[in-house]
Each structure stands twice: as C-alpha cells, then as structure tokens.
Amino acid sequence: MSHSNIIEIRNITKSFPDKVVLDNVSLNVKPGEFLTILGPSGCGKTTLLRLLAGFNNATSGTISIDGKDMTDIPPHKRPVNTVFQRYALFPNYNVYDNIAFGLKLQKVDKRDIEQRVKRALKMVGMTDYEHRDVESLSGGQQQRVAIARAIVNRPKVLLLDEPLAALDLKMRKDMQMELKEMHRSLGITFIYVTHDQEEALTLSDKIVVMNEGRIQQIGTPTDIYNEPCNSFVADFIGESNILNATMIHDRLVRFMGIDFECIDEGFGENREVDVVIRPEDIYIIRNAEAAMFRGEVRSCIFKGVHYDMIVATPDGYELEIQDYNAFEVGTEVGMLIKPADIHVMYKERTENHVRGVMTDATHVTLLGESFECEAQEGIVAGMEVDVAFAFDAVELTDDSDDGTSWGIIRFILYKGDHYHLTVRTDDGENIYVDTHDVWEDLDEVGIKISPKSLRIKAL
Amino acid sequence: MSRLKHIFSRRRSLSIPYALFLALFVVMPLVLIMIYAFQGEDGSFSLSNFERFIEQREAANTFIYSIGIALITTLLCIAIGYPAAYILARKTTSTARVVVMLFILPMWINVLVRTLATVALFDFLRLPLGEGALIFGMVYNFLPFMIYPIYNVLQKMDHSLIEAAEDLGATPRQVFTKVVFPLSMPGVVSGVMMVFMPTISTFAIAELLTMNNIKLFGTTIQENINNGMWHYGAALSFIMLLIIGITQLLSDSKGSSTNDGGVL
Amino acid sequence: MKRIFTNGYLLLLLIMLYAPIIIIAIFSFTESPVLGNWTGFSTDLYANLFSGGVNNSLIDAIKNTFIIALTAATASTLLGTIAAIGINDLRYGKRRVMNFVNNIPILNPDIITGISLFLLFVSLGISQGYTTVILAHIAFCTPYVVLSVMPRLMQMNPNIYEAALDLGATPYQAIRRVILPEIRPGMISGFILAFTLSIDDFAVTIFTNGTDGLQTLSTYIYADARKGGLTPELRALSTIILVVVLLLLLIVNIRSRRQARRAEALSQSNNPRRR
Question: What one-character DSSP code corresponds to residue A92?
C-alpha cells in the first residue's frame, strides 16, 4: 500500500439486480488533487461517488481512503464530506446550525464552533447570513452554505456531486472560479462529478472519463482533449470530426479516400483505425491549388469569436470547421490539415461479435431471438457459437415490433459520412450499427440482420 | 459481526417490526378466516359452509338484498355528491375548505348516536321507518365519503385542460362530458369503494333504522359469529372478501391511484 | 342566479346532514328520556354528566374510550412513523408488497377486520379484554398513520438523510435531528386520525372486547339502543363533543389561514423557493 495515494479504488464492481452500474473500476487519487469524474448521465459516476461517501456498498472490490480500508466503515465515520447536487440543507435549521451540524456532533467547543462557522461562511462569501432561514436563500446561496457545511469539518477529501448543475449559467461560471480558488487555499483533495465537459476541462488537475460503468480514459485536461484514446472520449470532449481511416504504415493514414501524413506510429500496416481532427485544426484556404482536398461550404454560423462551418466534400463527407474568417454558403473552398493535428486512435472493434446458440441448421438464437442464417458446415443444433456481422449489415426499423429483435439507441457518433450507433438490445447486449439514416438518442428500433451477413464460428 | 451491524443500521430495516406486525395482525387473521371458512364443525376440510350458503337461501337472500341496497345507496351518493363536489371545486380554496369541513364535521359524532337521531327525525316528521329510512340513513352516513374524494380530484385538476377544450371549440356541456367527468373518474371510483362495501357490511345501523325489520349482510355475519357459528360466519366473511378483491381489481384497472380519499 | 342555485344546493345538503344533529342538540336541553319529546327547558342532562348523576357504566365507557384511543393512537403513531421511514427506503418490489398489505385494513370493512382479529385472538388463546381491543385498534389505525407520514417522506430531499450521515451523524441521530422534524406534521395528523378512528370505532371493538363487560362509548350506546332507548345524557355528551370539535376545527383553520398568509407574504418578499 503506497501512501502517496489518498484514495485507492481497486476493482470496484457495483451491480443492481437488473444491471451492472460499475464494472471493475480501479483508480488512484493523489492528495491535494482536483479530480473530475466526467461522463454522460447513467455512466456510473454518481454511484462511484456514493461508494466513496459510504451511502452504497460495492458488490465487489475495495476502497481505501487515507490508507484505511473503508469496506465496513459507515458514512458517518469516513474522513470525507459531500456537497450534493440539490444542496440537501436541513430545512429545520438556519444557516448557522446547518454549518455547525457536524461540529456539534463531534462535540467541538462552542467558541471553536462559532469561529470555524464564521470562517467557513467568509470563505464562501456568505458572511452575515448566519441567522437566515435556508429556504429563503437563492440556489447559489444554498449551494455556498452546503459547501461551507462540508468544508467546516476539515475533511481529507471533499466529494462534489454535480454541485453546480442546478444553477444558471452565469452563477455557474462564477462558482467555478470560486471552487478552484477554494481548492487552492484549502489544499485538500476534491473529487468532482459532472457531465459538463467544459466544466471538467476548466477545473480539474486530472479527469476520469467514464461511460457505461467503465473508465474510458484518465489524464490531464490537455491529454484528454488532445489525445483522446477512443471515439467516445473524442466525441464527448469538445467538438470533433471523427472518421473511419486506414493506417497504411507508420506516419501515413488514409481517410476520405486521400492519403494524409501524420505523426502516429506503431499501429501496424493496413490497420483500420479512427482519426480525430478538431474543427479548429482544419484550415480553409482560398487558393484551391495548394489544398489537400476541396469542398463546398454548406452552412456558416457566427459564434462570437469564430465562425462554425459545415463543409461537404465531393465524396459525401461533411466536416465541421472553425475559422476566424467567414466563407459564404456555396463557396468552393480548399482545405489543409497539418500532420500533427491528425490524431489516430485504435478502434475498439471493427465488427459485431455476439454469442449465440444454433437452434437448427439455418437458425441461430442471439440477442434473445431466433435469427435466420445460412447453413453452416460442421455446426449443428445446440452448439454455442460466436456470431460476427459487419456494422452495416444491421438494418434498423422504426417499428420496434418489425424487426427480429429490438433495442434502444444509446449513443450516436457522426463519422463524417454516416452515423455509428450503439444499440442496447432487449437482453442487455450492445450491438453497433453503421447507417445513413438519422435516428435519435433513446429511439426504440427493430433490428434485422440479413442471413447472408452472419458469419458463424463454433466456440 | 460488523456486516450484521451494517444491516441493522440501514433505514429499510426499520420496516421489519411493522412487517412482522402486519403479518400477525393483518395477514394471519385473513388466513384464519379462510381456514375457518373451509372447515366443517369437526375441523376437517369441507365446503359445507358454502353449500349451506347456497342451499339455505336465507343468508344468500340477505346478501343479494344488501347488494341492491348498496347499489342504490352508491348511485344516490354519486348523484347527490358529484354536483356538490363540483360546486365546491369551483369555489376559492378557503371557502371550499370550510364547507368540506362542515360536511365532515358530523362524522365526529358517534355513528350510532347519529343513526338514533335520524330515527328521531323520522319520528318527528311522522315518516315510517323501513326501507326508505334505511336508504336515507345510509346515504346520510356515507355521502361525505363520496364527496371528499371526488372534490379532491376535481380540485387538483389542471384548469388549463378545461381552457384548452374550450379553446378547441367544446361547449360547456362537452367540456364536462369529454374532459372533466372522465378525468374525475378516479375520485368516483374511490368514492364507490368507500360507500359500496361498507353499506353491505354495516350492522346495527340497519336494525336501528328499520325497527329490526330489515337485515343487511353485515348483521347476518355478526349474528352467526355471536351465536358461535364461527365457521359459517367466516365463510360469509370470506364471500365478502372475494367481492372486495374483485371490485378492487376492477377499480385498479380503471387506473384509480387515489387512496387518500378516506383520510379526513 | 347560478350562484344562488349552487349555494342553495350546498345549503340544502348541509341542512339534511345536520338535521339529526340539530335535533340531538335541541333535545339535550330537555329531560325527557325519549328523544323527540319536549318536556321543558333544562340543563339537567349536562349537570348529570359532570356530577356523576348518571350510572357508573356510562362513565366507565367514556373513560375506557379515551384510554383506548390515547394508547392506540400513541402506539400507532410510533409504529407507523418508524415503519414509514423504513418502507420509504425499501426497494420497489418490497415497498409495493408493504404498501399493498398496509392498504388491506383500510379497504376491508370494519366487520371483516373485527371478525378476523376475533378469530386470531381465539386461535392464539388470548383472553379478550383491554389488551385485545387496544391491539385491534393499533392494527386498524397504524395503516392510516403510515399513509399520512409517507407523503412527507417522499417530498423530502432524499439526500438530506445522507448529508446528516456524511457530516458525522449516526443513523439514529440523523433520523432524530433531520427526518423527524420534517415529517412531524404528518405524524400529528396521523395521530389525530388514529385517535378519532379509535374513538368512533364500533365494529372492531365489539368483536374483540370479550365477555367481561368491557364497554366503550360505541358498544355502550349499542347495548343501550337495543334495550330500547338512548341514555338521555348521551345527547348532552354528543352536543359537547360536536361543539369542542367545531371549536378545534375553527382554531386550526384560522391558524392555518394565518400561516398561509404569512407564507404568501414571505414568498413575495423573497425569491420563490420550493414549498
């Protein structure tokens, strides 16, 4: 056990009867760090925070805080304090008594309590509010009291569960700066949960990106922005163009039918990869001769400092580009991408793999339903099999009863000329679909797969 | 050890004492009614109690007659109570609160005293005691239980729904039949639940209102229990439980979610 | 015009509802043993009630009624509050089962509750008397307490309890200092409801009061009425109860109106917050 970590999370899994919320999560936090857990709603970030606070127990795995195993330690004995999203101030106490709550329980000397409460109030800029009724305060003021109530106990770690989510934009920005300042002057560890990527980039020393109960990437804000490890992170953090590509060999990658020089190495030869190019990294030049590729401006919107444009290439790719100059809609433009601005990522998968069982020679049960397939040599009924099929072999239908199986669209990724969808099927498995059709998040869809495209192998 | 401590420190463990209490004082007694109902006098399994119910006709006739009286009472309560609830719901909350309270206030006087007073009223007005007095007494007793839940639903109804209907060209009559009444059904259903079954099962009240001339099903059950016919009495109770179960299922399928109707 | 009609309708209903009660009130000021016979103005019935001029069994019945109601309402409030806090924290499935069973005594007619408990006490060989009546009253009152406390718990920010634990309170301290103050109004209305249900109960009591002659007001009146007449003093007692309740309701109503007005004034001077 190394004492350079204030928190050590080891192989934590949390499952409820109907689903797994956290799947084998491990994480170390250094003392004094401002660490943000970032992810879309339902990714497990709040559950992870609640496990740290002790409100829930993990199904398996261990958490230690300050060198001590926390498994059997109830919340009231943990050296952490929490700031809740909806403040959770005690309505029956005034501001002073809310903040003094923890100190009174610890039987701190009365004069000490008064001093510490006053100092905490000063820290959150709420001096003179001691005797106010908490329900008479505005949202921002309530959250300040909630923060004061937590830090007055001098916890080793402060847990913040989307503390600014309920505030309006202006108030949120102000509070961000104040939190950052507070972190500096208190010198304690902050663990901050949010779904707001901008907030995470602004505040954190370190960001943990989570999705579907798993950690996707851990790194500094710059790392995460510049070197996203997969298409989910690239899409979730900032604006980006994500495209299918082939790594031809080291430092040469082909996408949109064009070979581009890049600086990435070690992916092997002729390997399918994803590339990310940030909108500000594509340069529009008027001199089309010098351009690497051409396109036509489809839309151009002024965003305060820069213009946000959609440019379509003749091959049917759409790219988002940010530039300080405006180009009129319909203009033919040339574009340039520098090698260092092309970021190559491993694909998590290149086709769907699902487990199934052969029911007879031409039917296989997968995703909880029976799918027709072509007769396979050497495979008999009852065999467990691995079924592979391409992303674009799946047809989605509007009517969820229309398909062989059905599912809900959980994640949509635009890849320049098509959408890459994650569909959670009826029996809880994910399948991935490439389509040109426009769907929306959480749409219910029917799933059809043509018999020819199922490739079946015995397990 | 600490695991065990952990389990007992959870809030949900606080439901355990009440779960045990309910098991002993609610579930067990109902199971006993079932056991007694399906036992002959010698204690062995038997359907004789139910055979007797069908063959002897006396209890069965009372049962059917009680259902009739309960139906009339319920319909009268809806017919009289719905307009009252509707009028109340259109008044300002503070006025309505006072009137609703006035409707509920008589409930604080013992039901038997009120019944005897009703008898006195009939005497005073030189009206005969009998079926008419019985129905009047029942409506008198149960009307507040019909008004209250309907008023509750009507009062919480989103007024913009009515305005939307008017905006879309509905006449006042159509607004009522197409929007207000259908939306107030949950209140009517819980009102029916609170009038129908209690009417069938009341005892004492019917006797007092009719000079012992008319018996309702509740009285039949009570007489059997009092005369030591526990098995037969339990069987009659079991029949009532069945009816309650059925009406409950029917009202559930109508989507009634308001169980607060009884809380005065 | 329409207003007159609707107000007239309500008035008519109220008159119908109050006619018997007014008769009781009027005839509480005459001594005649038969209700409906006016034998001249007198306050003797009231005097008898307080000077012990009535027979002891009526006084006993009144005493019993209050002791039973007080005990049952207190026990129900404790049991029901603790239960509601626990049920509120249960997972969906178990919570549904608990709520379903909790609703059974509310939906069952009193006579079924009475008979089922009678069979229980007989089967367990418990001799019937004070204890069984109180247990029976707790059984049919507690579900109402649970129902009155539950909405308060559900309105509460679920993080409040956790915040207390987080700040170092033990589960017991967190409940006492944070949850109880929040649900107190629900507990009070639950207690009042349980108290009145118990006082008014007839059907459950008569099946569980045994043969040793334990009488409450209800069973006393029942026995009285079957003997052919109402003890005249009961008219005075009913009138007193009515007036007391009327006064209580008026006070509660005026107070809650004043509070509502104050809350309104507050919400206008501050930015609107929940509740």
Answer: T
